[in-house]
Amino acid sequence: MTNPTAAILIIGNEILSGRTQDVNVQFIAQRLAELGIKLEEVRVVPDIPGRIIGAVNELRAAYTCLFTTGGIGPTHDDITSECIAAAFGVPWVLHEETAEVMRAAWGERVNAARLRMATMPQGAVPIKNEASIAPGFTIGNVHVMAGVPRIMQAMFKALEPELPRGERIEMRAVYGIGVLEGSIADGLGAIQDRFPQVDLGSYPFKRDNKWGVALVGKGTDVAAIEAAIAEASALIAAQGVVPVPGEPG
Amino acid sequence: MTNPTAAILIIGNEILSGRTQDVNVQFIAQRLAELGIKLEEVRVVPDIPGRIIGAVNELRAAYTCLFTTGGIGPTHDDITSECIAAAFGVPWVLHEETAEVMRAAWGERVNAARLRMATMPQGAVPIKNEASIAPGFTIGNVHVMAGVPRIMQAMFKALEPELPRGERIEMRAVYGIGVLEGSIADGLGAIQDRFPQVDLGSYPFKRDNKWGVALVGKGTDVAAIEAAIAEASALIAAQGVVPVPGEPG
């Protein structure tokens, strides 16, 4: 079975300016792995219509699904929704049902700016969520979510039942504290060759002023991942270091 | 004066799997703002040659400079360096001077895997750094750095004197705690219209269970940024909320 694929498009001047540390990618990436959807690309673009529209059309054509974060609030810099309409070549129209939900919740405070959050590409389906009145929306294979992490997470949760599924992408790791990558590289390459169905990665880190390496196996074939990581553990042990098993991903 | 532009390319299965939280983008973004270089795009791609080569060639053509992070270690999954050579259409060759530095530092531990870290696209100039023996490198307008944050930061520091400069990109912010974006959106849009040279952003947040909004002005014209933020403060005050000035960026 081939896993569905995905990309994330972050629409965010605040990420590009360094003002905000993105945390949405890691959240979405981990959830997608559970669902068996392979995250294959992330892009961050500024709040410029041409850049958003171009990226949306490129990424929605290349992957099974595209998740966007950011730019769906009520202010002048929130232009994602209009840009998605332009990318799909459909009108950007008031979604009456959503406007009604807003009027019920906010009464007279529903002004023109807030109604922008009820305006969507024609044919879009709202992504209702527990964290906010204003929804995200899905059109085609594009899922448009907020940038604020707690709202994005609520939207993702609401969206999950609608997403395609694949075989769950599993991860196992083993740590060698005091092991240098360069000393085990050959052996590790040989393990990768023996287990082509496992995506075997090597990630150095420094902890308590000591270098170490995390060897990580990833894929859908758990038996192969565990066999590869057992061999990686033996490689660490052969360096005279006790291998520390990692948490299952 | 037009600011130089930049993109970051993260070569990182570990980011796409959700195993690792990227922190390099924020570091580089903040440093680039200081240097007056406008970060206009970030991409994350997997450790697949065609994906790396394609992204490198697209991004180096589109921006003044491209920074890559990740994939320059000694293991089988470290393929960035070869891919950069392929992107430039030049041979991938041992950099003798770097090999000498390694032999001096590591002696007999310099094996074939470690020599991969001294192998570079022909014509590349090493980026020496305080944190590691193995360097990054620059070729054309592409700066190739490690993925491990402390090594990347040391490489960036070594690289800084070589980078183009522009007018410093300044940031000022004001916070309205208890202010909802939808209530000030019209006024904020009018301020943006009055200060087209300022990039005015609105970012909602929740703190102590209360929604608030950060209004952020960005650009190279400090007087205009400060005037726009003064007007934004007045907008917050008009909501009956005391505006809280943000730290200068």
UniProtKB/TrEMBL annotation, chains A, B:
Q: Which residues form the MoaB/Mog domain?
A: 7-166
Output this protein's name: Molybdenum cofactor synthesis domain-containing protein
Matching entries from Pfam families are given as: FLAD1_M (PF24102), MoCF_biosynth (PF00994)
Q: Which InterPro entries match?
A: CinA (IPR050101), FLAD1_M (IPR056596), MoaB/Mog-like_dom_sf (IPR036425), MoaB/Mog_dom (IPR001453)
Lineage at the top is: Bacteria, Pseudomonadati, Pseudomonadota, Alphaproteobacteria, Acetobacterales
